[in-house]
């Protein structure tokens, strides 16, 4: 998932920095519009809490195909249109991105910046300065895709609270647990994406890190898996697979690999 360019063809540094500035400005302008639209529609509460995110995410997912006048976000394109998104729906999604960003900023002080790590899945994409939070735009897009694919809602509250808990652990513990998250994606060959903590290779060691894909491929419910990028795995799953349940299974595999690496150090 990218906002500008693609994993295989990332934008130049100049293009990415210019886009980042425009994206942040668009988020700031979009939030009051978003809140006005939600309120006018008699939508969920806008109280700035993580608990409010599920209802707001479900509201946006239910309206993402609604055809009403709205200025579309710059990142809105053909991939969204193929999923039935309208300019109005994309504008609502961007408003939710702004809302989620403000929750993270209030709790952690994080700010937007450009990812300049060539090994990162978000190279030259907008990210938050505290990487454990994950990019809000990715979380919002993934949660909407999950809801509209029959996932029983966006479950954005859980995603946000998991990220905030990861931040708390990195503050309180010098050896944070590695995390893996799973989202539905729009792709002709793959239906889910698993994203791993950035420090995974350092913790596991290169050989064990590169072997994760084989463990994932052997898991029931996964038809195929590829290690697409340093922290990104693309998954083809069996029909009806729940990304949350799959995420728990992959987390168990990751925890086991961490434990193995720890035993080798003793």
Brief overview:
By secondary structure, this protein is α+β, with helices and mostly antiparallel strands.
Description:
With 266 residues, the chain is of the alpha+beta class. Helices cover 51% and strands 11% of the residues. The chain contains ten helices and six strands; from the N terminus they run H-H-H-H-E-E-H-H-E-E-H-H-H-E-E-H. It has a four-stranded antiparallel beta sheet with strand order 3-4-6-5. It has a two-stranded antiparallel sheet with strand order 1-2. Helix 1 (13-40) crosses helix 4 and helix 2 crosses helix 5. The chain is globular, with a radius of gyration of 18 Å. It starts with 12 loop residues before the first helix and ends with a helix. The mean pLDDT is 90.
Give the SSE layout.
Elements: H1 13-40, H2 53-63, H3 78-82, H4 87-108, E1 112-114, E2 126-128, H5 136-148, H6 156-172, E3 180-184, E4 192-196, H7 200-204, H8 206-210, H9 212-217, E5 222-229, E6 232-237, H10 243-265
Antiparallel strand pairs: 1-2, 3-4, 4-6, 5-6
Helix content: 40-55%
**Main sheet?**
4 strands, antiparallel
Strand content: 5-15%
SS class: alpha+beta
- Largest sheet: spatial strand order: 3-4-6-5
Order of helices and strands: HHHHEEHHEEHHHEEH
Features:
266 residues, alpha+beta, four-stranded antiparallel sheet, 10 helices
